[in-house]
Design brief:
The structure is a single chain. With about 210 residues, this protein is of the alpha/beta class. It has a single domain (about 1-205), classed as Metallo-beta-lactamase, Chain A (4-Layer Sandwich). Helices cover about 25% and strands about 30% of the residues. It has a six-stranded mixed sheet, with helices on one face. The chain has a six-stranded mixed sheet with strand order 7-8-9-10-13-14. Strands 11-12 form a two-stranded antiparallel sheet. Strand 11 and strand 12 (about 160) form a beta hairpin. It is globular and about 45 Å long. About 40% of the residues are buried.
């Protein structure tokens, strides 16, 4: 059994997810918690549910998804995993933050680089990894075949896709990766997006204006 808890954090309205199992172990994805109030909201949930964080993962390293990296790794003493192509963005995040008027404490360096040959293990559950650059050079998604959900970062949104006009973005690459990798998943797979509401593979195949036709 897996439970997915959503938080919406920071001025960019970024989605942070806490994935937990029946043994109360959890993985934190994309901690965007920026203010002390947001940090407290995340930590109070973990405390109330008696969860034990074991891992922090960034689906990609744009600033809105890594604002809470320092807080989470410091509070829970857990490792940070990313894709290797995300490292330059992770290192540059504080500089990008200044552009948006956002001050951030730099993220610690990653403890491991993930790729498609890896799996993420949470108790008895396994998450398959898809490398899906296009929005970001280091974008990765995490798929539970058994529970039919995908933690997708900013790759695929409800009737939209991740923007590709940021450094390292590639519009055609993103469309190709979505069609060749994500659209091969079961139609009833729920996609937990990095911003906005969740969606399904079926819905996006039929209604996403960037991908239909």
């Amino acid at each position: 059994m897996l439970n997915v808890k959503l938080f919406v954090f920071n001025p960019f309205q970024e989605n942070t997810f806490v994935l937990s199992n029946e043994n109360k172990e959890c993985i934190i994805f994309d901690p965007g918690c920026y203010s002390s109030e947001e940090q407290n909201e995340l930590s109070e949930y973990i405390e109330t549910e008696k969860l034990q964080p074991i891992l922090l993962i960034n689906t990609h390293c744009h600033i809105d998804h890594v604002l809470g990296n320092n807080f989470v790794t410091g509070k829970y003493s857990i490792p940070l995993w990313i894709h290797k192509e995300g490292l330059p963005l992770l290192q540059a995040a504080p500089v990008y933050g200044q552009t948006y008027g956002v001050q951030m404490i730099p993220s610690p360096p990653p403890d491991k680089f993930l790729d498609e040959s890896d799996e993420v293990i949470l108790g008895n559950e396994k998450l398959q990894i898809f490398f899906v650059p296009g929005h970001s050079p280091g974008s990765i998604c995490f798929y539970s075949k058994e529970h039919k959900f995908l933690i997708g970062g900013d790759v695929l949104f409800y009737e939209s896709i991740g923007r590709t006009d940021l450094p390292g973005g590639n519009h055609n690459q993103l469309l190709t990766n979505i069609k060749e990798k994500l659209f091969k998943l079961d139609d009833d797979t729920v996609v937990y997006c990095g911003h906005g509401p969740e969606t399904t593979i079926r819905h996006e195949k039929k209604h996403n204006p960037f991908l239909v036709g």
